[in-house]
Amino acid sequence: MAPTLAQRHLPRPARDWAEIQERMLVPLYEAVYDRFEVGRHTHVLGLGCGSGLALVMAAARGAAVTGTDTDEARLELARQRLLPEPQWGARHWSARVLPSGPDGGPDAATLREGPPPTLVTAFDTLPGPEVLARVAEVTGRDTPVVLAGWGPVERCAAAPALRVAERLAEPRRATGRCWRPGGRDDLEDLARRAGLRPDGSGRVACPFGYADLDSAVRGLISTGLYDAAVRATDAGQVTKELTEALRPYVRADGTVWMQNLFRYVVAMT
């Protein structure tokens, strides 16, 4: 789909996320929504909602949705996707898009202005325990919170490419979001620190497929996992080393394909 005029004026990483990378997690979104029978009696709160694809999918099932994110450029794309526009006519769904506070979480008072969420998701960015605890106060007891992350490193073909970010960021001990291999109980531990009760888990195959090597590099860089590496070195170095790490996954037709496994944990408020 060609970008709209508004999308063309947003930063390239946000556009690359929306146009290339975000769809890689669609199997995860669908698995969670199927598990909880998301539909017209559901109110989904998406923490770190990005440019809103997961919320659009929930809204298409009939759910009311609320999204929040710290990235204003991605959030603007979510607004374009979710909020009614005159040329599209009235939409038959309820949607809100909210900016996140400094700690990455939504303002509790703003959340209380609408009906309480019945399902909370954190598909792309894991919030801190203080954010999850604050959300739990708004939702009330026995609301499921889904926390998602990478599966075992040996089951994720993208790991060598992601290690480029980790390695290049290390020399100057750059701060910021950076990929780290997840531990077996990391998601459960996060839930417990927030005062939530782990109550099940699941694994979902999310293959990363790209039209060509350039799209793969742009898509992965758009995740934000390479930002610290760019600050520690420079964009050219990151692009060069990421390109080399991806070459083993280039197929004969030029497409790039990597099998990955994601894991999610269900925790109850």
Provide a descriptive summary of the structure in words.
- With 269 residues, this protein is an alpha/beta fold.
- The chain has a domain at 5-154 and 180-208 and 260-268: Rossmann fold (3-Layer(aba) Sandwich).
- The chain has helices spanning 5-8, 12-21, 26-35, 53-60, 72-82, 108-111, 129-139, 159-169, 186-193, 213-221, 227-232, 235-246, and strands at residues 43-47, 64-69, 95-99, 119-122, 144-150, 197-205, 208-210, 256-258, 261-268.
- The strands form two sheets. A seven-stranded mixed sheet has the order 3-2-1-4-5-9-6.
- Helix 5 (72-82) links the parallel strand 2 and strand 3.
- The longest helix is centred in the C-terminal third of the chain and has 12 residues, at 235-246.
- The chain is globular, with a radius of gyration of 18 Å.
- It starts with a helix and ends with a strand.
- Residues 1-6 have low confidence and may be disordered.
Structure keywords:
alpha/beta; 269 residues; disordered N terminus; 12 helices; single chain
